[in-house]
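Mods, move this if it's the wrong board.
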Amino acid sequence: MYKTKQKGFTLIEIVGVMAVIAIIASIAAPRIFGAIQDAKVTALVGQAKTLGVTATSFYNDTGKWPVHDPKSTDDKRQQLMVNKGGNGQPIIGWDGPYLDQEISNIISPSANHILTPTSTPTYTCDLDGNGTSDGSFLVYYVHGISDTIARKASNILDKDGNEETGDTSWKKAGRVKRYNGDNTSILVFCLGRI
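Not the wrong board. Structure tokens:
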């Protein structure tokens, strides 16, 4: 009688397969995470554009620009969803809610994000890049945004956030800029001159 050979894998074969899997994962993981990040940036830019259109509808109905702070507990700061003006009274002409559902901070869900009309210097927009304010704007500012994500958003809307050049002028000018033009986590979208 002869012995039958047991079937199975040797330890060396298993280690070899694990090494191949690890190599493939190390190549694929950064691309997958990069694609997820790009999708979030695209969604953030899309949300900013939608807020611009929504705010214009609000303005066409009421003759005023909305303030919308989804994290606020004050109804007067949620004007795209609730008909209450700064004085606590209903807004004349309001025909909302102007959003199907409340917006969220796509990149940093626990961080603030606010839509507001302003001429405040820290949110001032410099669309022509000459170093001076271009007036009052409707802005959407979003907290918790890394420089990488901010640069990608600026590159989508302003075509000036090319990472390879090392140029940081995108932080101060255009429709997408950094709060005060510095490295804070706040990204400002200049949605329209008002």
